[in-house]
Amino acid sequence: MSNGGFAARLHALRTGVGLSQEELAQAAGVSVRALSDLERGRSRGPQRRTVQALATALGLDGPAAAELEHTASLGRPRPRPRPRPRSEAGPATQPETQPVPHHPLQLPRDLGDFTARGSALNRLRALAEHLDPAHPPVAAVSGQPGLGKTAFAVHAAHTLTPHFPHGQYAIYLRGMDPHPTPPRDALARLLRALGTADNATPTTTEDRSGLLRSLLRDRRILLLLDNAADENQVRPLLPGHSPSLTLITSRNTLAGLEAVHRPELTLLRREEAVELLTRVIGPERVRRESQAARDLADLCGHLPLAVRIAAQRLAAQPGEHLSKLATQLAESTTRLDTLQAGSLQVRAAFALSYRQLPPPTRTVFRRAALAAGPDFSPQSAALLAGLPLRQAAKCAQDLTNAGLLQPHPTADRYRFHDLLRLFAAEQLAEEDEPAHTTSAQNRADLWTLHRATAAAQLFDTAPHPDTSPTPDPDPATAPADHEQARVWLEAEKAQWLAALGRAQARGLHQQVIDTAEAMHWFSDRTPHWEAWAQVFQWAVDSARALGSKRDEAVHLNYLAWAYNMCLYDHTAALATAQAALAAARESGDQLQIGWALGYAAGALHRLGRTNESITWLQEAADHLGKQTGPESRLAELTALNSLGQQLRQTGRAQEALAIHRRSEAICHTGVPGKPQELIGLYLAVTRQHIGNDLAALNRWNEAEHLLRYVLTHFQAAQMPAWSEPARLDLGIVLLHLNRHHEAHTVLTTAHDALVRLNNPRKSEAADHLHQLHLTCDVAPDSTG
Fold first, then answer.
1. CA–CA dist 496, 502 (Å, integer)
2. Model pLDDT for residues 338-352, shown as the tens digit of each residue
3. Which of 239, 218, 237, 221 is nearest to 229 (CA)?
4. CB under 8 Å, gap of 24 or more: what pairs does 253-256 form?
5. Residue 752 and residue 781: Cα distance in Å, rounded?
6. Bridge partner residues of 248 (DSSP)
7. Of 88, 253, 295, 731, which is most buried by a Cβ count within 10 Å?
8. C-alpha to C-alpha distance for 388 and 409, rounded to whole angstroms
9. CA triplet 192, 193, 194: central angle to 5 degrees?
10. Are 736 and 752 contacting, i.e. CB atoms less than 8 angstroms apart?
11. Do the Cβ atoms of 277 and 293 come closer than 8 Å?
12. Tens digits of per-residue pLDDT, 123-145?
């Protein structure tokens, strides 16, 4: 039935106050489509609750609101007269109005300060508006404790009330209790609320479920099943053929529940968390301490329950500053103590889920708090929990289903929410003996260091013939090649770094030295990692603890490289290289003497002391050229290439070219005992220098040919730290060849990669792109 009078009145009121349909719909909490249907007279008269919401949004006073309600009521359908026996029927029987009966399963109170969740609400609204009785929709809302699942479902149910004129029913299923509500009992309560007499209620669960489906066949109701335990508990409560909508909330994912919609509730965005805070305590307090409000949101981990508790605490103390609470929350050891307001407690919400777990899963949860970094693998969880890998992986999945861990979207890894990690650490301290915790940490550390050492050794293309590679602790899962080793070392970086630091503190000095030595070749591929300085400093400290001057010299040289290439602290690099030179001379290690001279020269060059640097490089090349071992040839190649580079940069490009041709000849001759793969890398480096020498001599076409070869070689070796500077060099050459569009593409790619690698040459790439934009008709990309 249409209602043209209401439609015209609503349209006139809306346009009279200057609101668009979208603005009025948002203010009243109805969908734009529903509002459009009302204004076009395509919908029957809306329910009283909807009219009240529209009147409030339009700013109508009492009489005007009453008039709008009266107009709406004229379009509502009248119930059919209740049939009576023929003997009672009169000639002029009037229809009787039958409002929705009162029942004991009314919706809980909605929150007037409910915030955000617009996308999820819109998804449910769409289900209600396009409901197919043959497939009554079921929406399951799950997620970690404190995410606001029940608050969302209750708010959604109230918002969708106009779509379900036959009532809204909510039943609490006690899914987290030791004994959740049996489906049979829940069905009895639902049937009673729907008007079934006790003596007409079937005895079995199956029959009660069938009667429920029969009663709901023609009723347009909203059914809220709150805090469900599992799929078996809710399946008997679901309608069959019915114009109804069922909302389910559960801390478990209910992954086995078929054909359900899953509105996603994520953590609040920071601005949404601040908005919730604002709605509870008022805009003035938030405006006065806007930064403290943002800090509070972050310290609460953007978890709705935590933000609400912080807000409720502040609301109860109108004179308290937000910064005071932020300071209290900043103390991680007492943060969970602070996050409670009366009966609202973050810790209690977490504990409810934790107590449901079987003992092995609780152990995985607690011990995972020992893992370093933002996430961890099932292997780390297994080592820390002392469980087989397969069992630990199953426990981690169960923790994900319970909302206590968050899975990585692509990798087989897991992470804690910040507050859940604090809770896990509390449980660890309360339930595990310190000796057991220490034993678990040590076990995981040793396994991780052995795996890290074995993986890093795969990058050593020239292992010493007298050195046996470290065996992997689990050959069945060990990385088999460079790519697998790289993936593991990068994913587990936080774990093996923390393990290395603890090993150094425990006095496992040889293990520290062995791991750091293995990492040397891998570090060349990842110079953007600032952590290398710490790795090699630990190794230096361990070498000194063992009294090994040779190892001290080796790792001081590695440390000087890290200061030069990773931290760009060239003063520290020079001092460290000089210390390495002293230790090498004391130990008589001629190779390390040569390396120390070269690293010192690199620091001098970066400090602007170029003439001194060239002198040191010449000394390094001369010293290494007198040595006979293959390692000295490789070091000589490095010294010669650096010497030529500095000669070119001081305007002596022809001398530089001669030096680099000398390096090229060494590569072509080969180095006894060294694989061709390694010599190929040195040759690529040398040819990059030759290409730049030729460019400095304006021999652009020859330079392009060589730099393309270099780029291809480094890309094939998957060495972005080397390929991207070469790409920049190629882009510069293309620019000078006036191939502007190609140069723009190459320079943009190089710039973006150098930014990701935190390479100092990113500024050089940005400058060339900017110059290209100024001088040529080429659109610039972002090069911030």
1. 10
2. 999 999 999 999 999
3. 237
4. 253/142, 253/400, 253/401, 253/403, 254/140, 254/142, 254/228, 254/230, 255/401, 256/231
5. 10
6. 140, 225
7. 731
8. 24
9. 90
10. no
11. yes
12. 999 999 999 999 999 999 999 99
